[in-house]
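Please produce the structure of this protein holding adenosine-5'-triphosphate.
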Amino acid sequence: MTDGPSVQRTLIVFKPDAVQRGIVGELLARFERRGLRIAAMRALQVDRSMAERHYAVHKGKFFFDDLVKTITASPVVAVVLEGPSAIPVVRAMVGATRPHEAAPGTIRGDYALVGLRNLIHASDAPETAASEIALWFPEGVIEYTRDVERWMTEEGAP
Ligand SMILES: Nc1ncnc2c1ncn2[C@@H]1O[C@H](COP(=O)(O)OP(=O)(O)OP(=O)(O)O)[C@@H](O)[C@H]1O
Ligand SMILES: [Mg+2]
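Below is the modeled complex.
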């Protein structure tokens, strides 16, 4: 099949609350189980200038300062995930921005209660995914395939 969903890359960031709660591995496992491939990963302490660049689209909003303070409060883990329709698939798995509105079964719906403690960031469109991946991984990502890919994607099917 050649008309299936195209392969995309998306950025997720496990925010300080996920690292502090010790659930990064548990949450990352959900994406691996879905079939997404890890194309890059790093743990880092975000500084103010990096936070302001990451959240540039929110500059001027009333919660901007809280956002910057929250993401710089403690280390984070950033990951690039890759797979068919990775951007909408990951957004759906993360759930609604306001966790009290997030559906059960989503990460926020299963683990979070309030907006500033919603555990994870995920790119929302191809353009933001590209710019965010460039910001968080200036050295680039790794390109490889896994043998199991052929059983989770339409590459090489049947
Ligand atoms: N009205 C609000 N009040 C307080 N905080 C907010 C509000 N809207 C968004 N935020 C915070 O800003 C972050 C970024 O907002 P955005 O609209 O991009 O949501 P999102 O795309 O679901 O989340 P993220 O970008 O973190 O994946 C949210 O994750 C949340 O922590
Ligand atoms: Mg967003």
